[in-house]
Amino acid sequence: MPKEELNRFNLALLKRVVARGHVYLSNASLRGKFSLRACIVNHRTRDSDVDSVVTEVLAAAKEIR
Looking at residues 16-43, what average pLDDT do you find? Predict the structure, then answer.
């Protein structure tokens, strides 16, 4: 996928994940690429919490494809 197309897809993916309301992601620009960013700082975070981020991103990707 060309870089600009991937950037647009990742932006749409970010918006969809946030709109679903189960997890929150932000973004970062890495070498000109729009990237999704999860910031986990709570010491009570469990593996299942991190897994839910992955699950939500995959579900949102299916919705926008």
Answer: 96
